[in-house]
Amino acid sequence: MDSRELVTSGYQSLFGTEGVSAAGFQVSEFREWVETAPDTDISAVEAFLLGDFPERGAFTRLVRSRSNAPLIALAETKALNSTLDLFAAGIDDVVAKPVHVKEILARVGAIRRRDVGSDKARTVVDEICVFSDGRDPEVAGATMILPRRERRILEYLAANRGRRVSKQQLFSAIYGIFDENVEENVIESHISKLRKKLKMRLGYDPVSSMRYLGYGIGV
């Protein structure tokens, strides 16, 4: 989010080249979206990147009122007082420009790994253990290496264990709620591949599905 469209569109494009769905907001648009978006849309966001604009402290507190996702602020020039103010408002990291999007993604991963070892960093469903810090899951006691989108599907299903989620909810969580260039039906292909891998490891399919009701683990 930034007051300059050139900045938001530029970063959106750069994240896209890394296979990460992103949306760029002007300041006023972002406030309205955070205040009115459904909880399912807010929870689908993996991280927030705030450009350099005067109201960042207030916007940080606004985001924090609805999401615990990593918050990273970009700084044109680093100044101690402004950096301390951002940390006090709830920012997780302040990064000086210019910075490559790969570094931003690495910092997001590092922030998420701070919770390693805590209960909220891992979710266990029967023989499946998934992590919220970007690590591959453990299935039947051994690490299962999965493509990013299949891993995110498994994480989302585990986070919602005991209840069913729709294809649209999975799409929002995996591709982002703003990606209009991907068909929603692609989720079915990812789920099919994931279920086959889990069945090969476990000997059974832990993901159940019901028409019109969606998918679930531990249901």
TrEMBL record:
Residue span(s) of domain OmpR/PhoB-type: 120-219
DNA-binding region in chain numbering: 120-219
Any coiled-coil regions, as ranges: none
Swiss-Prot/TrEMBL keywords: DNA-binding, Transcription, Transcription regulation
InterPro entries reported for this sequence: CheY-like_superfamily, OmpR/PhoB-type_DNA-bd, Sig_transdc_resp-reg_C-effctor, Sig_transdc_resp-reg_receiver, WalR-like, WH-like_DNA-bd_sf
GO CC terms in record: cytosol; protein-DNA complex
Domain Response regulatory: start-end pairs: 1-112
GO biological process: regulation of DNA-templated transcription
SMART domains the record matches: Trans_reg_C
Gene Ontology molecular functions: phosphorelay response regulator activity; transcription cis-regulatory region binding
CDD domains documented for this protein: trans_reg_C (cd00383)
PANTHER family in the cross-refs: REGULATOR OF RPOS (PTHR48111), TRANSCRIPTIONAL REGULATORY PROTEIN TCTD (PTHR48111:SF67)
Name of the protein described by the UniProt record: Transcriptional regulator
Organism encoding this protein: Aureimonas glaciei
